[in-house]
Amino acid sequence: MRRAGLMSITSYETNLSDWFGSRLGQYVYDSEKRIIDSMIADVFGYNAVQIGLPELDYLSTSRVSNKFVLSSTDRGSLKALPELVPIRSSSVDLIVMPHAIENSQSPHDLVREAERVLLPGGVIIFSGFNPHSMW
Prior knowledge:
The protein is of the alpha/beta class. 33% of the residues lie in helices and 22% in strands.
């Protein structure tokens, strides 16, 4: 359900992608990327999915064979709503969700879908801004 006064998710994601192109945004991306790279260094498997921010490659250092970017825009390799992932259950080894929860109209459904497609023993990584901080 969409709340009045909030911008659309696609618009928010586009604005956030534009911000990541700024000097401060690039610094934040580089910092996040370094942390995520260290977290996924030892993750092996067949399928990895990045949900959101298709302009930024959070999976570039992943050793997982098949890498996909799911986005509600045309820029991802898979276009779909993140809350309705068109991926078979228990088929993904790694999910990286950069700022996906804060972009979601239904964060609970988003996390539920990520859990559904993740293999037992798979890895899921969330990143985002604290809504109660100055960020």
